[in-house]
């Protein structure tokens, strides 16, 4: 095989064809080409985000920009396989920098780089450089702001958030108005999804949601509201917070006219205490998130709308459509 | 975070991982991050370029090295203080015996073939060690837990047998492109470039007494007075022209079939000097991997479907390149999907044959997938499945039998679920592996040789590695390194005897015992004599009964902790019993080469017994249907066929 022969502008190189052979057999050359021209911003290097980054770099995305100024900590060491066990190499370096170095190794055809600064300070012009933004951990206000900016740009920017607590995980997806082709009996049927913004989705009154919506959805909203009200750094909760959280649950359930029993104490306790991520759950949720981002960027496959939940306790990976539309 | 008790269980555990490929890389990483400190890995494979899109512990510079060893090194970089022991070896080696397995608290499979899975299942049963089994194909995957006496074993559910095609379909009446690929790869390619001295189906047929005089000369051999071009054209005309004309002369064959059209080179490429772009360029190519007929002809895109003329040129050019640049390989080549020139030759030959039979032609990329039986594979599914394996492994260590789950990863949501947990089944009481239920073999005891029983039944169907076969207390066959010479000679004699002619005659009513000391496997086979077998439906000339118990009648339910009221009892989703990686098409003659033959099997059984509308079940059917659509997951076994076709089945 003559390597590196570029077969026209629109063709994949022989090198790409050889490396991506097994996945091109799933999603085709066109999807692979679109993926390789996509640029993505990733904020907050949690264990789940690290898993996600590995997946999209392997898949051959165009470029990844990492955002996380935090210095490498013991905790990061424990759930992050991108951080080598070498204190000397890590001194004074940000988590994004360390992860970037390791990620580059996974696929020389993907451009991985680091951006400094605060996610909440990013404006529309900067976000226009990207086809998708994925947020690992940020305050609800920041998530809402960034999603709002993405939706206002004329360029389409897909928006994802992911949060894992204890052995539970949640993914949120906003693809705005998304058109894709679905195969039905060998015919391609054009389908369209209208996604609500994060703000719109969480504002849907709970009593208007289907009866079987997972309790994890409500529990995550209660924790989210609690962190926002208390001005907590996301994920920094303890068992001692339970009584305040129970009180907030009462208020929210009353306001939304649902029974408090839909959000069990036991679940709230787990989410408050389990501030360290579980590696198997990171792998599972990071895997699903990787797949959804690849779908959105390549235009291939039925996308998830608009929440995904996983709980290792019952082993279910559930899709919930939370929208007023 | 995990409870203290859970962490202690993880820390103190000793686990065995079998397979360091797509699932294996993900699994080793997740185990290490989760706190496991004593991990053994077995994998016999070395790293290839096409692994790198998902097996993230490997880099370009590792190509050709041991997967187990490189995976170990990579994980030690972020977890230097744990014990990882790498075995670059076949899990079926005798060193990995029951005692070896007994040292582990749990065994985790990330394998790519049925034989190894069955072997590990038996060793786990014998050693009493729980097994967490897994598999992925594209977006689909599954994790199952097998604990002796508590849940079903890996072999309690019937495993589908490889798809088989009668020889006559391949040699005379192809109707699908896959038939043309099998012909090009297993017959034509093997004949021209493989071991000529070895009898394959081809030689047996052409040596048929009625026209043996015609076939004294081996047509596939280049004559002294022939240059490469002449030789190539002669082969081309013979297999695509003359043989088709000959086949057409038998009117009976084509009564209800579309007649093929003979193709001669002069009709496809009428102008002389068609090789001007080809071998005339005298590039000094020493690296065989860079030899390419399509590139030297200016065909660059493997995704394009070539015209008949282009395929014919590639055929001649590839043949010529083999003769000129890879002369040493000829006579010992076997098809390798990573050998560019071999893939080009097989693609071109299959396409010309397809054109002859009115079958749509395919691109090199597609042909490679079919010929190499390439299975779709992506990192994301493997990562998800590895995470699920670790979750189940931790439950096994905590001895939480009530919470064991089989989990299916599906492409389209089923009852809103992408990850679907199901309670494990109880052991199947009629399983010949874990319940030692006797099997019945219908066979012609007067005609069938012991060798056929050993190869087709004991090794192939029962997956026995080192068989010992007994009739009562009399040994009639065994294998092993430590046998006496006279015993070896004796067994060799037995192999060639019909069952009823054995020193201890095997007739209707005889009970044979098959054992494997390494697997600690025992099973009884009741022999029933039967005179006739249907060549088409029972091409093996024998029928083994008792292998496929119908388990789907048993109700199954989705794991429900709460929310059970809103959840209707669940249909059982499709089982994706499959492989992570590549596999080869299995040809009968090679079927005893266990180590080399990897298979992929897709079980498509779906029951909707609790949901008559089966609305969601259809989604799964579609998922699995996709797997079945591609020819690439069909495992092909060539079978002997009826006599009248053999006469026409002259190839080359």
UniProtKB/TrEMBL annotation, chain A:
Pathway assigned to this chain's UniProt record? Protein modification; protein sumoylation
What are this entry's molecular-function GO terms? SUMO activating enzyme activity
The record ties this protein, via SUPFAM superfamilies, to: Activating enzymes of the ubiquitin-like proteins
Keyword Acetylation belongs to the record: yes
Per its UniProt record, what Pfam families does this chain match?
Answer: ThiF (PF00899)
**Where in the numbering of this chain does the THIF-type NAD/FAD binding fold domain appear?**
20-314
Keywords on this record? Acetylation, Nucleus, Ubl conjugation pathway
List cellular component terms (GO).
cytoplasm; SUMO activating enzyme complex
Task: Tell me where it resides.
Answer: Nucleus
What name has this protein been given in UniProt? Answer: Ubiquitin-like 1-activating enzyme E1A
TrEMBL record, chain B:
A GO biological process held by the record:
protein sumoylation
Read off the InterPro entries from this record: ThiF/MoeB/HesA, ThiF_NAD_FAD-bd, UAE_UbL_dom, Ub-E1_IAD_1, Ub_act_enz_dom_a_sf, Uba2, UBA_E1_SCCH, Ubiquitin-activating_enz
| Domain (THIF-type NAD/FAD binding fold) ranges | 3-431
Q: Which residues does the record give as Zn(2+) binding sites?
A: 153, 156, 431, 434
Ranges annotated as biased composition (Basic and acidic residues): 215-224
Q: Which residues form the Ubiquitin/SUMO-activating enzyme ubiquitin-like domain?
A: 441-533
Record domain Ubiquitin-activating enzyme SCCH: where: 313-368
Report biased composition (Polar residues) as residue ranges.
204-214, 558-568
The UniProt entry annotates the active site at: 168 (glycyl thioester intermediate)
Which residue stretches belong to region Disordered? 204-224, 556-579
Q: Where does ATP bind?
A: 19-24, 43, 51-54, 67, 112-117
Q: According to its UniProt record, where is this protein located?
A: Nucleus
Segments spanning the bilayer are none
* One GO MF term attached to the UniProt entry: ATP binding
- GO-annotated cellular components: cytoplasm; SUMO activating enzyme complex
Q: Which UniProt keywords apply?
A: ATP-binding, Metal-binding, Nucleotide-binding, Nucleus, Transferase, Ubl conjugation pathway, Zinc
Which pathway does this chain act in? Protein modification; protein sumoylation
Quaternary structure, from the entry:
Heterodimer.
What is stated as this protein's family in its record? Belongs to the ubiquitin-activating E1 family.
Q: What is this protein called?
A: SUMO-activating enzyme subunit
């Amino acid at each position: 095989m003559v390597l590196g022969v570029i077969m026209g502008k629109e063709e994949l190189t022989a090198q790409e064809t050889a490396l991506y052979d097994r996945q091109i057999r799933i999603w085709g050359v066109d999807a692979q080409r679109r993926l390789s021209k996509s640029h993505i911003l990733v904020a907050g290097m949690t264990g789940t985000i690290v898993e996600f980054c590995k997946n999209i770099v392997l898949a051959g995305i165009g470029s990844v920009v990492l955002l996380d100024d935090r210095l490498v900590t013991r905790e990061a060491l424990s759930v992050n396989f991108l951080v080598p066990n070498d204190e000397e190499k890590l001194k004074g370096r940000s988590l994004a920098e360390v992860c970037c170095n390791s990620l580059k190794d996974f696929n020389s055809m993907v451009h991985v780089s680091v951006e400094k600064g605060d996610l909440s300070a990013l404006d529309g012009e900067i976000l226009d450089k990207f086809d998708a933004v994925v947020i690992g951990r940020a305050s609800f206000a920041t998530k809402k702001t960034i999603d709002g900016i993405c939706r206002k740009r004329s360029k389409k920017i897909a928006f994802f958030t992911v949060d894992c607590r204890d052995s539970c995980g949640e993914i949120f997806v906003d693809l705005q108005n998304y058109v894709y082709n679905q195969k039905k009996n060998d015919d391609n049927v054009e389908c369209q999804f209208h996604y609500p913004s994060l703000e719109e989705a969480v504002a849907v009154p709970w009593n208007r949601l289907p009866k079987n919506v997972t309790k994890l959805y409500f529990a995550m909203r209660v924790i989210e509201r609690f962190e926002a009200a208390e001005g907590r750094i996301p994920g920094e909760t303890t068992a001692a917070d339970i009584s305040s959280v129970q009180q907030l649950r009462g208020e929210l359930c009353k306001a939304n006219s649902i029974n408090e029993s839909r959000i069990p104490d036991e679940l709230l306790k787990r989410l408050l205490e389990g501030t360290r991520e579980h590696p198997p759950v990171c792998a599972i949720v990071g895997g699903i998130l990787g797949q959804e981002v690849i779908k959105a960027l390549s235009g291939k496959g039925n996308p998830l709308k608009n929440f995904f939940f996983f709980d290792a306790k019952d082993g279910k990976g559930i899709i919930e459509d939370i929208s007023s539309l | 975070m995990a409870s203290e008790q859970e962490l202690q269980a993880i820390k103190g555990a000793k686990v065995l991982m079998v397979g360091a490929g797509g699932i294996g890389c993900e699994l080793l990483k997740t185990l290490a991050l989760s706190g496991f400190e004593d991990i053994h890995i077995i994998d016999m494979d070395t790293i290839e370029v096409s692994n790198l899109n998902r097996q993230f512990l490997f880099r370009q510079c590792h190509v050709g090295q041991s997967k187990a060893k490189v995976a170990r090194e990579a994980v030690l970089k972020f977890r230097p203080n744990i014990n990882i022991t790498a075995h670059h070896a076949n899990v079926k080696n005798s060193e990995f015996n029951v005692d070896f397995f007994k040292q582990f608290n749990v065994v985790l499979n990330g394998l790519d073939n049925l034989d190894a899975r069955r072997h590990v299942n038996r060793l786990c049963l014998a050693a009493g060690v729980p097994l967490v089994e897994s598999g992925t194909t594209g977006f689909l995957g599954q994790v199952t837990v097998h604990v002796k006496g508590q849940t079903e074993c890996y072999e309690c559910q019937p495993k589908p047998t490889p798809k088989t095609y009668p020889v006559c379909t391949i040699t005379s009446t192809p109707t699908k492109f896959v038939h043309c690929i099998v012909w090009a790869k297993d017959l034509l390619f093997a004949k021209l470039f493989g071991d000529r001295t070895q009898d394959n189906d081809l030689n047996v047929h052409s040596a048929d007494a009625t026209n043996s005089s015609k076939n004294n000369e081996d047509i596939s051999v280049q004559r002294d007075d022939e240059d490469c071009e002449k030789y190539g054209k002669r082969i081309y005309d013979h297999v695509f022209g003359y043989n088709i004309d000959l086949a057409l002369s038998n009117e009976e064959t084509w009564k209800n079939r579309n007649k093929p059209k003979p193709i001669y080179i002069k009709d496809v490429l009428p102008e002389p000097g068609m090789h001007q772009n080809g071998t005339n360029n005298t590039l000094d190519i020493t690296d065989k991997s860079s030899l390419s007929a399509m590139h030297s002809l200016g065909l660059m895109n493997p995704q394009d479907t070539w015209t008949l003329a282009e395929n014919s040129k590639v055929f001649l050019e590839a043949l010529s390149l083999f003769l000129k640049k890879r002369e040493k390989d000829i006579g010992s080549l076997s098809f390798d999907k990573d050998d560019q020139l071999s893939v080009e030759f097989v693609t071109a030959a299959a396409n010309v044959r397809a054109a002859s039979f009115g079958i749509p032609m395919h691109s090199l990329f597609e042909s490679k997938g079919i010929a190499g039986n390439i299975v779709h594979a992506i990192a994301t599914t493997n990562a998800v499945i590895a995470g699920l394996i670790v979750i189940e492994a931790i439950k096994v260590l905590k001895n939480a039998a009530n919470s064991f789950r089989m989990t299916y990863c599906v492409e389209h949501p089923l009852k809103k679920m992408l990850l679907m947990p199901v309670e494990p089944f109880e052991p199947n009481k009629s399983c010949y592996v874990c319940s030692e239920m006797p099997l019945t073999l219908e066979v012609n005891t007067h005609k069938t040789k012991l060798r056929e029983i050993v190869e087709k039944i004991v090794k192939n169907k029962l997956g026995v590695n080192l068989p010992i076969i007994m009739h009562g207390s009399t040994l009639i066959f065994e294998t092993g390194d430590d046998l006496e010479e006279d015993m070896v000679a004796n067994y060799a004699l037995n192999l060639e005897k019909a069952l009823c002619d054995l020193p201890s005659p095997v007739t209707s009513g005889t009970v044979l015992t098959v054992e494997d000391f390494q697997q600690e496997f025992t099973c009884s086979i009741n022999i029933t004599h039967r005179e006739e077998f249907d060549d088409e439906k029972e091409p093996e000339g024998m029928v083994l009964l008792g292998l496929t118990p119908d388990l789907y009648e048993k109700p199954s339910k989705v794991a429900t902790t709460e929310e059970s009221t809103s959840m209707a009892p669940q249909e059982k989703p499709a089982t994706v019993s499959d492989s992570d990686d590549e596999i080869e098409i299995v040809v009968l003659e090679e079927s005893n080469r266990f180590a080399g033959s990897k298979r992929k099997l897709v079980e498509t059984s779906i029951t909707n017994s609790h949901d008559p509308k089966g609305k969601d079940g259809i989604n799964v059917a579609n998922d699995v249907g996709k797997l079945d659509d591609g020819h690439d997951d069909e495992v092909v076994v060539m079978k002997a066929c009826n006599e009248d076709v053999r006469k026409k089945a002259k190839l080359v």
